[in-house]
Amino acid sequence: MRNHRGHRVTIHAGSVIGADGFGYVLDGGLHRKMQQVGNVIIYDDVEIGANTTVDRATLGSTVIGQGTKIDNLVLAHNVIIGRNCIIMGQAGVAGSTQLGDYCVIGAQVGILGHLKLGNQSMVGGKSGVVRDIPDREAVLGYPAWPEKEAKRQWAGMHRLPELARRVRELEKQVEQLSALNT
Fold first, then answer.
1. Which pLDDT score is estimated for 154?
2. How far apart are CA 158 and CA 143, in angstroms?
3. HEC string of the chain?
4. Contact residues for 180 (Cβ-Cβ < 8 A; gap 6+)
5. Where are the domains of the chain?
6. Which of 29, 80, 132, 162 is the most buried (most CB within 10 A)?
């Protein structure tokens, strides 16, 4: 298959488009290379930052949708990226993942393979996505949780030292009451 590049596409220095994907199968105790015979399709008005790698698909097409902007040092293989997405620096999108339209992926995000991120979904920086994300949901953290739940968890973690101190005090009070009752 042949790669296809649309109009008004900018690919910055050091980027590699259509490289052989990372595909191996364990055969007789050895990792054997699977042929990556797919291609890459880049639609109109796409910008791909410096030192970004967009590998060709194993069989079908790696697709970068119209108007998508990809920052520096991003890795993608055998993925379908929708229209008008923003993917910030050092993000990695593993094989066979699909991003809907208007997704925003923060810097240093890792997305496992074979997932679906819905339209207008957002992933906060340094998050690890390990499950599908529905349309218009924002997630944070590792593993990535819905934004409100992640913030509630982080707030709780900041209160742990104070809660531990209070529990110790309550344990002392219980011990003192038990000693009085015996």
1. 86
2. 18
3. CCCEECCCCEECCCCEEEECCCCEEEECCEEEECCCCCEEEECCCCEECCCCEEECCCCCEEEECCCCEECCCCEEECCEECCCCEECCCCEECCCCEECCCCEECCCCEECCCCEECCCCEECCCCEECCCECCCCEEECCCCEEHHHHHHHHHHHHHHHHHHHHHHHHHHHHHHHHHHHC
4. none
5. 4-143, 146-182
6. 80
Residue 30's identity, in one-letter code, is L
Say whether 114 is catalytic.
no
pLDDT at 14: 96
| Predicted confidence (pLDDT) per residue in 89-110, tens digit | 999 999 999 999 999 999 999 9
* Measured distance CA(76)–CA(166) in Å, rounded: 48
d(CA 147, CA 153): 10
What pTM value is reported for the model?
A: 0.84
Residue 155 CB partners (closer than 8 Å, separation 6+):
none
Question: Counting beta carbons within 10 angstroms of the beta carbon of residue 160, is it exposed (0 to 12), middle (13 to 18) or buried (19 or more)?
Answer: exposed
User: The domain 4-143 belongs to what CATH superfamily?
Assistant: Hexapeptide repeat proteins (2.160.10.10)
Written as six digits, the tokens of 101 are 């339209």
Name the active-site residue from 31, 77, 114, 158.
77
pLDDT at 1: 58
Beta bridge partners of 48: 11, 70
